[in-house]
Structures are given as C-alpha cells and as structure tokens.
Amino acid sequence: MSTKEILLELRTQKGLSQDELAEKVFVTRQAVSRWENGDTVPNTETLKLLSNLYNVSINTLLGSPNKLVCQCCGMPLEDEIISRNKDGSMNEDYCKWCYADGTYTYSNMDDLIEVCVKNMASENFSEEQARSYLKIELPKLDYWKRYEELSDDGQFEEFKKKLISEINDLNIEGMPKVEKLSALVGKYVNLEYPLPGGMKAKFLNDQTTYLGTQLESEIVNGLCFGVLANMEFILICTYEAEGTNPELILYKKR
C-alpha cells in the first residue's frame, strides 16, 4: 500500500474525520486531505505524532520501505514488537526484548546468544549452528558496534543483581534459586489468575517489558514457577504445561 492509502485507512479505522485528525496532530484539514490524495507527505514531527496516535511505526506509515531488524539481536521487526522510548514513542531500532522503556536490557552478548539460541534451534538448525551464526552476525549490529557509547556502565546489570537477591530472599518453598532474569514482554506472560468468588484477573500490561524467568519446581513434577518483576513489584506464580492452571503465589510491591 502507498502512504496515502495507509493514512486514509488508519484514519478510517480510528473513526476520525479529517478535521478531528488535523486537530490531534496540529495541522489543517487541508493538510490531511493533501496527504490522503498523495500530494504531500507528513513531515518528520507529524509522522511521530501519527505513529503514536495509530500505534504503528513510521516505517509502516511510509509503506514499509525498509526492512527493520533489531539492532541488538537481529530479529525482524513488526509493529507489535517494536520497542518504546521513555516517552512512549516507538524506537524502530530495537525489539521489546532488547530495549524497554528507554533501557537496554543486554550488556553481555553471550547472555543474549544463549537466549536467542533456544528460540532459533530446530530440526534443521541445531543449537550449535544457531550459536555460530549469532557470533558472526551480532557484532555487525549497531548496538554492539556502539556498545561503549550506548551502555549504561553496568547500572542495569546491578539492578538485575539486586532484584535477584530480593527474589531469592523470599525463600519460596519448592522454588530453586534465581540465577538469571531475562526480558519478557507482558503479552506473552500475562496469565489470568483465579480469585476468590470465581473471578479471574491479570496483573500485567501486555505492552510492557518485564524481567523474569521460569523455574521447575523442586518438589512437584510438571509444575513450574514463573517469576516476573520490575522496579515496582515482584510477582511469583505457578503453572503447569503451556501455562495451564496458573496460581498466584506472591505479588509484592518493592
């Protein structure tokens, strides 16, 4: 689709008139009309406003002229997994797992490789092949090329260590000690827990990236502990295969 078709479709899906859209992005109705007729294209600042309004990337607004890949892990980027800056705007250089709300989540390439290998390995692509491929390709990406410039001097790693210590100090019966925490997007770990009275509830935001891990119970076969945390809380739950029968064990404000 062309830019003019995309802009018209997104406005229509949002249920906005040209006048209403113009007011939201601080332009005239005539400007909106010119975009949708293909006479002009929104400027950079207006594209940012449209991106936030429609929750799509600027690349999508322009008809996807570029094939976006995460500049930390190399994953192809679709709008739903593009990371966010602290102000909520999209950062089209990274996925949600590698950059969360203005923070880079990986400072060690080997740790990232081990996470990626588990997701890349298949019958036709062994873990060793995946590991070798990543060791060649990751250093070519912008984040690792500019690591000294972009890194936070280990502040995020220190935060993770402190969080791990807090979690282990809880001494949850049957749960092994946490050794590592990885970035996890809420959408994929937001389980629905049963509450008294037959109600159910979710506690996470699907769009937010958390730190977490999965651990096998030391006591009950087939039972896993899920650990999720951020700067505000620690959540610990249990569940069976494929996330079935979830039970909230602890939700603690930090």
Poorly predicted ranges (pLDDT <50, ≥5 residues)? none
The count of helical stretches stands at 11
What is the terminal separation in angstroms?
A: 47 Å
Q: What's the number of domains? A: 3
Name the strands of the widest sheet in spatial order.
5-8-9-10-11
Structural class: alpha+beta
| Mean of all residue-level pLDDT scores | 94
Mind describing the biggest β-sheet? Answer: 5 strands, antiparallel
Q: What's the helical proportion of residues? A: 25-40%
Overall shape: it is globular
Order of helices and strands: HHHHHEEEEHHHHHEHEEEEEE
Backbone CA Rg: 22 Å
Structure, explained:
This protein is of the alpha+beta class and 254 residues long. The protein folds into three domains: 3-61, lambda repressor-like DNA-binding domains (434 Repressor (Amino-terminal Domain), Orthogonal Bundle); 79-150, no CATH class; 155-253, no CATH class. Helix content is 36%, strand content 19%. It is built from eleven helices and eleven strands. It has a five-stranded antiparallel beta sheet with strand order 5-8-9-10-11. It has a two-stranded antiparallel ribbon with strand order 1-2. β9 (224-229) and β10 (233-239) form a beta hairpin. α2 crosses α3 and α6 (109-120) packs across α7 (127-137). The chain is globular. The mean pLDDT is 94.
